[in-house]
Amino acid sequence: MQKLRGWLSRVPRPVRWVLVTLIGSVFLVLGLIMLVTPGPGILFLFLGISVLALEIEWARELHKKGLQGLEKLFAELKKRLSRNKGS
Fold it and tell me: Which of 3, 17, 40, 75 has a CA 20 to 30 Å removed from the CA of 49?
């Protein structure tokens, strides 16, 4: 994501906004389609939100909440796995 952010920083702001919105929206739509068809739908949804978060505030907040949720999930999994190993 850092390489994308670095490349986009050299693009004029209006063009950058259009590119980010277009690419992020495509990933979101593909993710929604893949939720009902075979494919990694949730991954594409996260990717779309991540791309949109580069320029759009609501996506930035949603991205932050999603990352916090994933951190909690991994912490819980780690705790359960370590508890099962001790048994």
Answer: 75
